[in-house]
User: What shape does this take?
Amino acid sequence: MSRYRLEVLVTPRPGLLDPQGKAVHHALNSLGWDEVSDVHVGKAIHIDVAAASEEEAREKVEAMCRKLLANPVTEDYEVTVVGALEGTTS
Amino acid sequence: MKVAVVTFPGSNCDYDLYKAVQQVEGSPEFVWHRDRGLAAYDAVLLPGGFSYGDYLRPGAIARMSPIMDDVIAFAKKGGPVLGVCNGFQVLCEAGLLSGALVRNAAIRFRSHDVFLRVERTDTPFTSTYDEGQVLRIPIAHGDGNYEADEETLARLEAERRVVFRYTDASGEATEASNPNGSHANIAGIINEHGNVLGMMPHPERAMESVLGSTDGVGVFTSLVASLSGAAG
Assistant: This one.
């Protein structure tokens, strides 16, 4: 088994009211960044997981997203394999 | 009437629910979230609070508690289940109610009385109210903005599953009377079988006139009435 680090990005679904994004957008504009036209705030979750392959690691984390990490009613998610980690697990 | 009040780490309205059940002469019992078994109870209540510090999403981690398998089984058998505030969020996360509760549109934590219109009285939690009756009951939440896809919202309306709506004192569902941006001023919904109710306002905090309102009492007297009806 190898170990992999994966990143999950959870973002509010498009079209859904994103009050946090709106507040940050407003704050950036008021600091002078008028060129900012849209902001969305989500969360990044880093997960280290043991798996036989990168593909298996991704499948496991996608299952975690469906079961717990994202709410399909309000959020989208995206899984990225950051890379393999040093050392193996038994 | 034996009523389970489920306590999660971070629940803070469990004693209020316990007391509300006592006030209508029911027998409440606390059930810890790691315990199992609800078969001995007539009703199950999920309290407000901040289970697991609202980490990840409100209710998301509480939904994984061992007791939730029993709550789901209890609900599937038709047992009455009420989730208030965080309890409503847990019921949505558990899939017992559709939709989700997201951050209030104004990003403020709102803690004050609201007016609610009772949309349905043929439920185990509203039978002692009148249809269209306006209640004054407190809210206290940061994530009470009810969201669902268009199809779900249309279905909720078509099947009359919105049980409570935020209104003004005269019972009009206006934008100004909506404290959190919920679609169609939705404050509480029921599942399609009519036995699982989730609501953001706190009826258990509106039980005594000395504390400002007794308009929440009806939720609990309705539960008593529905269970005594079922027994007889």
Summary: Chain B touches chain A at residues 56-57, 60-61, 64, 92-93, 98-100, 102-107, 145, 147-149, 181 (CB under 8 Å). The mean pLDDT of chain B is 96. The longest helix of chain B spans residues 217-231.
